[in-house]
Every structure is written in structure tokens, then in C-alpha cells.
Amino acid sequence: MRACRTYYCSTKCQSAHKKIHDGVCINMNIRKELLRSGELLKTIFFQLRKATYDIKVRAVGKNEQGTILVFEDEYAANYGDGPLYPFPRAFADGSNEERALLAYLSCSDIFIFLDELSKSLLGGITTVMQEADFGFDQDRFLVRRISPYGRAEDHSRYMHSALAIEAKDGEAYIVDVSGAQYGQHQTVVPFGQYMSDFATKIIKITSHGHMALKARAVHEGYRDRPVDISAWMSGTAGNFDYRPLQMQYKVKERILAAVKEWEMLNNLTLHDLLGCDQERFEACKSSLLAKTDDDVRSFLAKWEEDGCKLEPRVRKEDEEAPSWVQDLRMDEDDENIPQMSELEEQSRASQRYSDDKKAECSALLASRFGQQYANFFKGL
Question: Pick from 32, 209, 270, 364: most CB atoms within 10 A?
Fold first, then answer.
């Protein structure tokens, strides 16, 4: 999908064709701006991911099928290291493999950390913007994480998230900045093509901004993060590390500030940038991305120089929660998410008893929280 330029032999010919051409021209410009928006969102997404990489990698390799295996190192007790770790140098080469590693299990970041940029870039050319969760063929995963205890990430329960939009050209599109982890590298895809070539079903659609509010509630201490099952199985959960989320918010704020500064320096909004001619767009895009990248690097360097300090997360009491948090607590999507204490209770029971008892514990877990946990204790 690309926009094109129409040339006329004379102004008379152009005027004669005006009624026919105008609608086509407007739609082509909308699609051009969509592609440019997706390009900017994806690049900034990868900047944020690389700056806040939170997996402690011991080694990276490939299996016979070409899947990238990320062997996770053991984390120090009591938050003795991290929360950020260096991205594997062997893959820091701008390749699709680098993008797959950076995008791995980070599809919701476009909702949480790029929500405001998404509105700035897409707001003027869309009529509807929503958060969509898709089912997909699990064999498409190009990356697999192996815990410090040798347990491979279980991908069977995962879905993929992307922006679903209706543009002012009357068409529906998916904006997918993190599809590289599945070999899906096209950022802006017509909805029908996305469903035909990649997704197997639509699981859920919510209003844009919903996930950002949920993450904000966790970040500000009004609610705890639902348990990460894979981390819990590896032995690293139980005390969820909120520090990476803190850093991601700090980097997000730095990126937004850099964008505002760039707009003021260049007397150009993001919306206006999308409509520039190609030469100016490329020049402005390069300077904008250099600005966000440089500012994030400077921020992280200063943070490290100051001793990597972070304020401890304070869990706030329910009565302190503002109305928007109370509304989130009524969200039916969270009703069946198991909390850590309940999982730990079932785990202790499974460790005390026979395989039959473990199966019984798994069945109980599945009955309460869904069939995705039916084999939770298998192999423990």
C-alpha cells in the first residue's frame, strides 16, 4: 500500500478531472499519512524497548527450526540487580531478528506507553481507534524464553495485541508495531488482509486508552499486577518486580517531552509532519527520531550516574483510589485472573501430594480460573 502522485498535462485538464480526482487524492493522502504514522510509532516503540530491556540474558542461540532461544540468567535476590539489562550484542544489528527479540511479549506496549503518541499521529486521520486482541497460530513465535530453571515459556495462553482503526478513507486497518516476534513486519495492514494472513480470530476489542489506565493504576500503586504465570513457574515470581514498569514510564515521559521540544524547535506538529512532501518528511523524521533517541540515552546515562535510584512503589489503600480506578475494578475482563496467593496455595498442595493430587489441584485451578490452567502442575 503506497500513496502516489498524479501529474496533469495542463491546468485545464486538471480542472476537468477535479471532481473525480479529489476523492481519490484525499484517500491516497490519508493512506500515506497512515503509513508514516505507523513508521514513526514502530521506530519509537523499538527505541523504548531497547532502552528499557528487562530480561537478564545469559545466552542466546537458535534451535534446528530457527527459533531464537533466549536463556534467562538468574536474578539476584531482593532486587540486587536490574531493573534494566543490556540487550544481547550479537543481535543488536538492526535485523529482523533484533526486532523479534525487542518485540517479544511486548505487544501491549503500544497501548500503555505509546497511547498519547498514537493519538497525536492517528487522531486526525481516523474516525475510530480501538485496542484489539487477536488469536494466532502459536507456531509463528520466532522467540522462546528459557527460564534460569530450564523451563521454556508456555506460549499457549498468549494472544497478540494491536491497534484497530477506521481511517477517514472509510477503510479499516490494523497498526501492529510488535509483529516482528511472529515474522509479521508490515506495520499498517488492511483489516481483511490481517485476518487472512496472520490472525485466526478476534478475542477482544476495547476502547483506546483502556490498557493505559490499567497500567497507570498498577504504576501508581492502586492495584497489583496480575501474576505472571511463566515467571511464577520459573521460581522468580511471588514478589513481582515493578521497577521495569517505573523505568518504562520514565522513558515514556522523556520521549513525550522530546517530541514536544522538537515540535517547538521546528514549529511543526506531528500531525503537520505527516503531510509534508517526501523530502521534508524524511529530513524531519530523522531529526525527530534522533532527538528522542538522544534524549533517552542522556536520561539513562544521568540515571546510572546518580546510582540507578528509584522511589519504592507504595501500595495505596482502596479508599484512596480515585473514581477511574474504581471503574477499572469493575472490569469483567479481570474477574477470573488468579492472584498470587491463590496460586501459591494450590502449588503447596501439589508439592505435598501424588500425581493424582496434582491433577486434582490443576483441575481445581482450571475450574476457578479457566482451562488454560488445566495442565498447570504437569511436570512439576
Answer: 270
